Amino acid sequence: MPRQCLAAASTCDADLQRCCPPHRCWRGPAGVAQCRLSCPVDMSWPCHAAPRVGLVVARWGGWPAWTPLLLKTLGATANASTGTNLTFLLVSEAPPRGVPLPPGVRFLRMGLEGLRQSLWPLGCSLTDGRGCARLAPLDGPAFSSAREVLSTAKVSTAKTNDLKPLLGEALAGALAQFDWWGHLQEDLVLGNLGGRFASPGALAAADVLSPFGAPHNASGVLMLYRNEHRLTTLWRQSAAARRVLESPSYLVFDESGWGALAHGDNLGAVLGREAVAGRLRFMRGGVPFGVTHTGREVSRLAAAGRWMASDRRHARGVAPRPNDALVACWSEGALYVSAGAEGDPCSGYTRRGAGRQVALLHLSSLKRQPAFSQLRIEGEAAASLAAARQITLTEHGLWWPLPSPNASSASEAAQHHQHAWLSGLASPDAAWFRLSSKGVRAYLLGLSARDAARRRRDAAGCARVPLAPSSLPLPPIALARPTAFRAH
Q1: Alpha carbons 242 and 264: distance in angstroms, whole number
Q2: Average pLDDT over the chain, rounded to an integer
Q3: pLDDT tens-digit series, residues 239-256
Q4: Rounded to an integer, what is the distance from CA 422 to the centroid of its chain?
Q5: Which of 141, 143, 445, 464 is 20 to 30 Å apart from 380, CA to CA?
């Protein structure tokens, strides 16, 4: 229990959060703050307003090829009516080129030099009696002074992953207006993040949210923290904090279960200690920390929230591997992944696939494949993608329906007969292709059926037994001569 903590109904300092667990300090009207279990009934208290969430998307060294898709999904979820006000802060040395930022997405210019300067005071504030933690250049030898560190241009962006848990302090000024802050990777496609992850209900029930399920406590992909001093400074409680700042290597401090700190005091270990001690309310993968339900009940609770999906296959006893039968459907702000043989809205089944809706999809494997890493989303292709109401992702690239050019009414325009295909696999002289919608839907349903059969086999513990011989469905680009849109 915290030292000198305050009892229920005591006046408290909302920044220092000195209430005795499980109470916390609630800001009230006219500067009043009180230790309570929950928000008071009085509607004049600010806690009744929609929570304001600021998510940092930090990227150095250039934005990836799929950035227009990322920005489209960021804008859609930032402007959705979910009861949560989401704002995304792109932090980098330069904004994405040629892509306007949608409402709810802002750019904060900061190079790696600026990041080091913002972190230097944090290293000097570690109270371990050994003076300032010297920030080594991020991929070079340790230096003896801050001047040498801050004048070094050679850096490694991999090391910046270790620093994600520190961004709440490093960017305190930019994040001060938000009730919650967090960090988000750029290799994602977002669905209804404010409704399925950062929902008002989840935010009211927790102090920290992670999309990873047990036993993993921390995620470099996405984390969300209540914007309070005791939570923003959680990283300081790690015995490895000084090492994280001083080491030029990426130690995987931001996650748990792998890397140099897999068995050390990484952020996941800190979160677990604080949750066990009752000093924070923690939710992992939609399940509150410490839930003692059976495995099946926990799976049901996680499925009800279904926060995150991956483009990899995960099965007991088998190492994760890319899912070459993945079908992910983004439809007007909602995201469906692996809907199975029943299909999803992108395949024309508007009332199906709801059970496979997720808040986000991590492109951990696809981002390294040419279909995505070599995408060219520009010109007419970029304009068409920006206007699309549905987009499907497979290992072969992006697919979306095209409006009928000769339609005489809105209803006729909605009857799509052709799809666009955009992929880094395309020939250099063609930016994108027009294909038959009938062929695209057959291809997507074939992939979904194959994926569903694999998941049933994996769930039965037969992941090592191959399916009956059957090739994956071929994309329609391989079956028919398409109409190519030439690159200009």
Answers
A1: 13
A2: 82
A3: 999 899 888 889 999 998
A4: 23
A5: 445
How far, in Å, CA of 230 to CA of 53, rounded? 17
Rounded Cα–Cα distance for residues 52 and 33 (Å):
19
Q: Are strands 360-362 and 308-310 parallel, antiparallel or unpaired?
A: parallel
Top-confidence residue, 46 or 134: 46
Matching residue, tokens 């920290």: 208
- Residue 91, pLDDT > 90, answer yes
pLDDT confidence band for 232 (50 / 70 / 90): very high
pLDDT score of 405: 67
Nearest Cα residue to 261 out of 249, 273, 275: 249
Q: Are 57 and 223 in contact (CB under 8 A)?
A: no
Report CA-CA distances (Å) from 262 to 266, 278, 289, 310. 7, 24, 20, 21
Cα separation, 216 vs 307, in Å, equals 14
Which pLDDT belongs to residue 214?
87
Task: Name, in order, each residue with C-beta under 8 angstroms of 96's C-beta and a sequence gap of 6 or more.
Answer: 63, 67, 68, 71, 90
Per-residue pLDDT, averaged over 131-142, amounts to: 53
d(CA 195, CA 200): 8
State residue 409 phi and psi, 5-degree precision: -150, 165
Percent of the chain with pLDDT over 70: 78
Q: How far apart are CA 27 and CA 37, in angstroms?
A: 13
CA-nearest of 328, 128, 89 to 240 is: 128
Residues 6+ apart with CB under 8 A from 83: 50, 194, 195, 199, 200
Q: Who contacts 284 (Cβ-Cβ below 8 Å, separation ≥6)? A: 210, 212, 213, 214, 216, 217
Lowest mean pLDDT among 215-224, 381-390, 455-464: 455-464
CB neighbours of 167 closer than 8 A, spacing ≥ 6?
Answer: 56, 58, 181, 183
pLDDT in tens, 358-402: 999 999 999 999 999 999 998 899 999 999 999 999 999 999 999
Q: Is the pLDDT of residue 153 over 90?
A: no
Which range has the top average pLDDT, 35-44, 99-108, 451-460? 99-108
| CA dihedral over 403, 404, 410, 414, signed as positive or negative | negative
